[in-house]
Amino acid sequence: MEEIRFYKVSEPYGYFSNFSPHSIFIDNEKWNTVEHYFQASKFNDKEIKKKIQLIESPMQAAIEGRDKKNILREDWELVKENIMYKALKCKFTQHPKLMHNLLSTKNCIIIEHTENDNYWGDGGDGKGKNKLGVLLMQIRDELLKQVDDELIVFPPWIAFPTISQYDLFWRMGSGEEYLTQWSKYYLATNTIDYRNKYPETKEWEGIYD
Amino acid sequence: MGFHPELFPDRIPGFKVFKAKFGSQAIEPTSNPIEFVLGALLGLTERVTLALAAKGGGNYAYRSLTSANAESLAAGKGIFANAPGGSWTLEQHLIHGSSPKSFLNNPWIATSSDINVARSFSSGNGLIRIDLSKISANSMQRGWMNLPGSSAGYHYSIWQQEVSIFGHIPQNAIKIIK
């Protein structure tokens, strides 16, 4: 079976890296990268979370998150994979082009190839757990079961469930960028089938009309 | 329900500038507070108020760019609304701006007088500052001064300090911040 290896953002498949410059919105908050969210989630201390959220680069966020002087939440080892899953799901649903790239890997094995990490990566010699690659494949497989069209763009209330349709978010920057892609997809597709499959929520009632 | 300033104390333009000058928040002044408060007290329309503030200088709005905006700016054409000739009113823009039909009908461009709000919506395509003194006063509106308190778009337009600009923002009114 074909293998896809990734690590550095600047190399092929670099968009699978948690350092890739794709912001995510979770629980009504914006995070510059998955790495920012993941590192901040290690802590209960709101000040540390905020500090990490405001750091510009994912590398600096990772350094701060690994700083031993910061006290980890007690259940971190139990929740860290779920948190990574949640962040990755947001990343790929909120960035349609990335989702299309992920879906196009079909049944390939995705590997974070690095000797720097035996848990999230493969350890460089293939003996690591490759948890990041495993989660990416899990999300890909779940999405492939869910969609009829690999080029789909999900409606905004699925991709960004905490953002109201009246929010300025949708009228500039990343929100408008998402709506542009969604609108083009929706208007070009079989709109009746799409509407039936993705009925609007109460909060978004009337958006199709 | 009408507008209740006490519910949004940090979103009143004058107060916001006061905090920027004397408080600890790292935000940029958005307008001349005296002119805004005076304008509100006198019951002037938002267009007149904006024009007065712009005349005094230092009156800016901000916008996170889309990739289409960035391309247009790079070509020296300024920024255009999704549908510059569209028929939507300001209220339709504020309420239905997230609809697919926005791309066919919406002649308004959203900006915010709060740089932090605009920055929070960054898509990686850049952030711009718009000099409102270079925009026709008739082309700028603030929804919260136009819409009834019962309108769904009313509170968001206060909270997020939207300044809606009609049709087109000329290149010479725009400064790329990042």
Automatic annotation (TrEMBL), chain A:
Residues 6-143 form the NADAR domain. Gene3D superfamilies: YbiA-like (1.10.357.40). NCBIfam families: ribofla_fusion. This is NADAR domain-containing protein. It catalyses: 2,5-diamino-6-hydroxy-4-(5-phosphoribosylamino)-pyrimidine + H2O = 2,5,6-triamino-4-hydroxypyrimidine + D-ribose 5-phosphate; 5-amino-6-(5-phospho-D-ribosylamino)uracil + H2O = 5,6-diaminouracil + D-ribose 5-phosphate. InterPro entries: NADAR, YbiA-like_sf. It comes from Niabella drilacis (strain DSM 25811 / CCM 8410 / CCUG 62505 / LMG 26954 / E90). Pfam families: NADAR.
UniProtKB/TrEMBL annotation, chain B:
The lineage of its organism: Bacteria, Pseudomonadati, Bacteroidota, Chitinophagia, Chitinophagales. It comes from Niabella drilacis (strain DSM 25811 / CCM 8410 / CCUG 62505 / LMG 26954 / E90). This is Uncharacterized protein.
